[in-house]
Write a structure and sequence with these properties.
- With 96 residues, the protein is an all-alpha fold.
- The protein has a domain of 59 residues.
- The protein has four helices and no strands.
- Helix 1 packs across helix 2.
- It is elongated, with a radius of gyration of 25 Å.
- The termini are far apart.
Length: 96
């Protein structure tokens, strides 16, 4: 968090940078969650959507692959631990 706050200090007052660093690093989102322009502005990030054409030309050199395929899989249920087989006579589990 301190590194994020340090970067934000270049653009925001100390208290705002510390608060925003906490929000950005507390695990609220996964690494691949896109923060929209509107959301970034609501967080207080001083952003601009004006991008020089040269930047788009540079980005074209590095196309993104795997569109439509999630990079993080969320499993919405708890895994259960399988029950152990009862001990068979003689003390060994599952011996036949």
């Amino acid at each position: 968090m301190s590194f994020v706050a340090e970067v934000l200090l270049k653009h925001l007052p100390k208290e705002k940078a510390a608060m925003l660093a906490t929000v950005l690093s507390e695990g609220r989102w996964t690494h691949d969650f896109p923060i929209t322009v509107e959301a970034a502005r609501q967080l207080g990030l001083p952003i601009s959507t004006s991008v020089p054409p040269l930047i788009y030309q540079l980005m074209d050199l590095y196309p993104q692959s795997g569109s439509g395929r999630p990079s993080v899989t969320y499993v919405p249920f708890r895994r259960t631990v399988p029950e152990r087989a009862p001990l068979a006579p003689g003390g060994a589990a599952g011996r036949r």
